[in-house]
Amino acid sequence: MTATGGKVFVSDITSGTLSIFNSDTDGQHYNSATNVSMGVFGLATSGGKVFAAMPSGGGYRVAQLNSSGAVTNSYSNGALWYALAISNAPGNSLLVASGANIYSIANDLTDASFHQVLDLSGHSVDGLTTAGNVVYVAVDGNRIEGFNISNGYSKVFDSGLMDDGPDGATAGFGSLAGKLFVNTNGGNVWEIDTSTQARTLIASGGSRGDLIGVDYNDGSLLLTQSDSVLRLSPFSGTFADPQSETPEPGATATLAGFAIIGLLAYRRRRTLNP
Predict the structure, then answer these.
(1) Looking at the chain, which terminus has fewer C-beta neighbours within 10 angstroms, N or C?
(2) Domains identified in the chain and CATH numbers
(3) 223 neighbors 212 (Cβ within 8 angstroms)
């Protein structure tokens, strides 16, 4: 899932459908979107363009999509045997996760720019996100690791073991810089401080979710669920409850709803250090 140009792109690999909502507003439903028969594993924006990691003719490719979801440019390579996730990166480039490896490619999808940048042999990599010169990767479905892009992809961050299945992550910006937001197969959303590794549960009770993304228009988080896309909105730079009544200790937002739904996110009082 990604948001750009006032539109929200949402992929559903199980149904092989890409849904495009033409406005970045809550309360929309599936039948208000443009729906394209297209299986997509991951979506990203780079330089105002939309890109997808997707199956193609028995293999996988990175494709550029127009505002209607049509493929306008693509790149395939034998190394992309299982392209699960994609993210933007510094210098108008893209990072693509495939198996145990991460590859870099320029966002004009040129052959010469494609190369492997990280080999995590013996492990599996999934959701990607970048913050500055660091790429954060979901590894083995049990942790988030960070690698410095400008320093030979040296490892600079490890979330520690997360037993609820971290599957996707996105990096905060502005007042939320230095925070990672991770959705899990257990239906939870965690905030992780990249300096201290402290984890805060900010939402729970959701279904299995693969993708999480920041809406750069307002700093909210967009989360895919099995039947919906949910929005968690920060208040004054935090995910704390802004209302006069303070939630009970341990209270979090409950994830439920259909299509694009707005939620108030409550900050959990207890934080965890790995």
Answers:
(1) C
(2) 2-272 (2.120.10.30)
(3) yes
